[in-house]
Amino acid sequence: MNIEQKNHNNTSENFEVLDNFERFDQKNDVFRRSWWDKKIRSKKTELFYATYREPLKTWRKADGFTQKDYALRNAAWHVSDILTEINAGQDRREGFSDAFTIQTPIAENKINLGTEREASNEIKKIALAFGAELVGITKYDSRWEYSSKFSDLSLKSYPPEIPENLNNVIVVALPMDYELVKTVPSALSGSATGLGYSHDALTVLSLTQYIRNLGYEAIGSMNDTSLAIPYAIQAGLGEYGRNGLLITKKYGPRVRLGKIYTDLPLNHDKPIQFGVKKFCNICNICAKECPVKAIPYGAPSEISYNQSNIIGVRKWSVDGEKCFSFWTAQNSDCSICIRVCPYNKDYSKRINRIGLKLSGTWLRHLLLWLDVKLGFGKRQKSSNWWKKI
Amino acid sequence: MNIEQKNHNNTSENFEVLDNFERFDQKNDVFRRSWWDKKIRSKKTELFYATYREPLKTWRKADGFTQKDYALRNAAWHVSDILTEINAGQDRREGFSDAFTIQTPIAENKINLGTEREASNEIKKIALAFGAELVGITKYDSRWEYSSKFSDLSLKSYPPEIPENLNNVIVVALPMDYELVKTVPSALSGSATGLGYSHDALTVLSLTQYIRNLGYEAIGSMNDTSLAIPYAIQAGLGEYGRNGLLITKKYGPRVRLGKIYTDLPLNHDKPIQFGVKKFCNICNICAKECPVKAIPYGAPSEISYNQSNIIGVRKWSVDGEKCFSFWTAQNSDCSICIRVCPYNKDYSKRINRIGLKLSGTWLRHLLLWLDVKLGFGKRQKSSNWWKKI
User: For chain B, how big is the Rg over CA atoms in Å?
Assistant: First the structure.
């Protein structure tokens, strides 16, 4: 292996692509499997999905799972749902398992945005104006494209649809509400997820349309269609955490991602490191707190629990089967590994920004001790959220 | 006229409903007339609308009207466009000239939200969580419903579609970007309008869906379907200004409105007054600066310039024909009367909040003099906006 290849493969110290790497088939994603794989699909998974659209016949009485909690969650998802379902008749889930095609044609005349650096700066600022809170740019990387895509609706496979000539990928991140995430696990907290997606759709569709209106090809999607986290890491948005999620500096793991592929000439960002590997090495809180033990202890590894893990990538990977089994058991999405993560803080507060800096130094042991001592990451009652609003 | 009627009619000192009041036919709205009335419709109005969707063949070179300016404007409108056009096949413009019907069914079980006051408090907080910046509640008022509605697509009239039993109206306001509005008139500044609508759609659709998920009927729309400003005034969001627009305390006239009709029992807000009438009486800046002199000098009156004015309401009313003629002449929406209004300030700054308080006192002459002296409301070059971002 020559040096260039080595640099290419070692994206960061806790994310390494190995020689036996294989592209991932979307069909093996645990969400897709929940539609076609008898090992996953059950009455419970069917109910899990149904209650995002139709009210439960008998509401649960448990805190965070009442009619009101579901009412808010499903309302928060509503705009995302309208947009993703708009071409269901063509076997598409726009912006989710398929890219968004609900754009108007590309302008004939191409606008010159100056140097690649100037163009990148401008596109990033427009992304922020359209609602993104973080934005980075990297190159198209076929490794993070699915080997083939899969429809939940028809249970058919299709060839991937992002053309390789769209050689730049703009990755955006939108935060989820901190106070709602505190109530995880709850149907209520799914409102943070839903609102994240609804705003994500607005940002991605608008930015994609802007680039098309400038005369360049652009195709957008939310956090599916391809593997969003490796793209986000390569675009400098953060690092892999033990919970298998992107850890950002500004919101920790509390983000939703979106991607825009384009042939607009753009400058690329570099991956960042701010101590996540060393911190996750000593932390293990997410692994301890996961009720179904889907998160690994120990060092990043290339372990494959089942077909829902990508082959040939050394990183912290979760067991998707175990993870999703808890989602369906409680009848809403779970984000305990986001709630308990010491990086899940309100970084608009200076004290937390100082903590973040120190977590990247030898003081990380003290920081971790303080985090537990001060009760960060503790579950808040959903009924208290309703009282406080 | 008994006292109750009098209170009902005198909504505020600069907004009075007279005995000869007649409900407004949506067909007479100047935007609707631009489709059916030969006096308004022309090659120019057709081009005006077409360029919101399709690129101009030859871009204007003028500052604020280049391809890039239109690119951003149309991208900002994109999500609003997708949603409003979703049922065009059924002769509907969802959320604009027609109410939104893109909601899921009402839950069978009605949730009790406590007293009307408690319910109102909760709904207002959820409205804010869904992106509204201002929210107020008033009662259904048939005077602000169109006598009949009109389709731009088929040029047909239809009976109004909001049932009277939806006796409460929640009015939300979302601000438009201050820096973009500074560049008015420009195609660029239309991005503030477009983003305002796209976010408005998200807020209205989500809040409407939330109420439906609680088991109550709810129908939402953006700032058409009925007369939004009188509803907003009755819901305590602000006062009528000389420019015929709603003047709010937090954003002045720089807002987009949305409405949700519901039978959820709610408490009503009261109209507010913070000195707008007296200030507009001495100001006249919008009347002076309007290039087509569509804004009146003098006191509020019941003048009807043409069929686009409502009959029997004493207020400051603009001449819609003149106003819209400027929109089409420059090929983008105009908001000069928003940009130059002394109430169009960045009220996140303390100094401007102090100014707002003083504008409601005898110091208003000084405030107005200062406003002109300090150059507030001056047009900024669009090219400078692009440089600054």
Answer: 20
Count of other CB atoms within 10 angstroms of residue B199: 25
- B85 contacts in A (CB within 8 Å)? none
**CA distances in angstroms from A302 to A14, A110, A296, listed in the order given:** 11, 44, 11
B82 close contact with A: CB closer than 8 A: yes
As a whole number of Å, the CA-based R_g of chain A is 20
Distance from CA of B280 to the nearest CA of A (A): 32
Model pTM score: 0.95
> Which of A72, A107, A122 faces B67 most closely, judged by CB atoms?
A107
The pLDDT tens digits for A245-255 are 999 999 999 99
Confirm whether B3 is domain-assigned: no
Among the partner residues B70, B104, B198, nearest to A206 by beta-carbon distance: B198
Report the distance separating Cα B351 and Cα B340, nearest Å.
18
Measured between alpha carbons, how far is A99 from A220 in angstroms, rounded to an integer? Answer: 6
Instruction: Tell me whether residue B5 is in a domain.
Output: no
Across the interface, of A55, A130, A214, the residue whose CB is closest to B213 is: A55
Question: Would an 8 Å CB–CB cutoff place A199 in contact with chain B?
Answer: yes
Chain A residues within 8 A of B67 when measuring between CB atoms: 107, 109, 111, 213-215
Q: Strands A15-22 and A10-12: what pairing?
A: antiparallel
Distance (Å) of CA A129 to CA A313, B55, B72, B196: 35, 22, 10, 12
B265 by DSSP, 3-state: which? coil
pLDDT (average), residues B171-180? 97
Q: Is B50 on the interface with A (CB under 8 A)?
A: no
Tell whether B126 is within 8 A of chain A (Cβ). yes
Buried b (16+ CB within 10 A) or exposed e, B38-63: eebeeeebeebeebbeebbeebbeeb
The Cα-based distances of A159 to A150, B112, B287, B328 in angstroms read: 9, 50, 60, 46
**Does the beta carbon of B213 lie under 8 angstroms from any beta carbon of chain A?**
yes
Q: Which helix (H) or strand (E) holds B203?
A: helix B190-213
Residue B13 is predicted with a pLDDT of 66
Strands of the sheet containing B311-314, edge to edge, are: B10-12, B15-22, B311-314
Give the strands of the sheet with A311-314, arranged side by side.
A10-12, A15-22, A311-314
Asked if residues A170 and A127 have their Cβ atoms less than 8 Å apart, the reply is yes
Q: Which residue in chain A has the smallest CA separation from B177?
A: A129
**Partners of residue B79 in chain A, C-beta under 8 Å:** 83, 201-202, 205-206
Tell me if chain A has a CB within 8 Å of the CB of B199: yes
> Is B21 part of a structural domain of the chain?
yes
User: Tokens at residue A119, please?
Assistant: 């163009």
Place of tokens 């600069």: B14
Once rounded to an integer, what is the mean pLDDT over residues A354-368?
A: 94
Chain B residues closer than 8 Å to A75 by CB: 130, 206-207, 209-210, 213
A108 chain-B contacts, CB cut-off 8 A: 55
Of B205, B79, B64, B132, which Cα lies nearest the Cα of A207? B79
Edge-first strand order for the sheet with B134-139 is: B134-139, B168-175, B255-262, B218-221
Range of the domain at B96: 10-388
Tell me, what DSSP letter sits at residue B245? Answer: S
Number of structural domains chain A divides into? 1
Find chain A residues with C-beta within 8 A of B129's C-beta.
177, 191, 195, 389
State the pLDDT at residue A314. Answer: 96
**Contact between residue B261 and residue B141 where contact means Cβ atoms under 8 Å apart:** no
Q: Give domain status of residue B2, yes or no.
A: no
Q: Given this model, what pLDDT does residue B11 score?
A: 56
In tens, the pLDDT along B257-273 reads 999 999 999 999 999 99
On whether any CB of chain B is under 8 Å from the CB of A209, the answer is yes
Looking at the DSSP bridge assignments, the partners of residue B279 are none
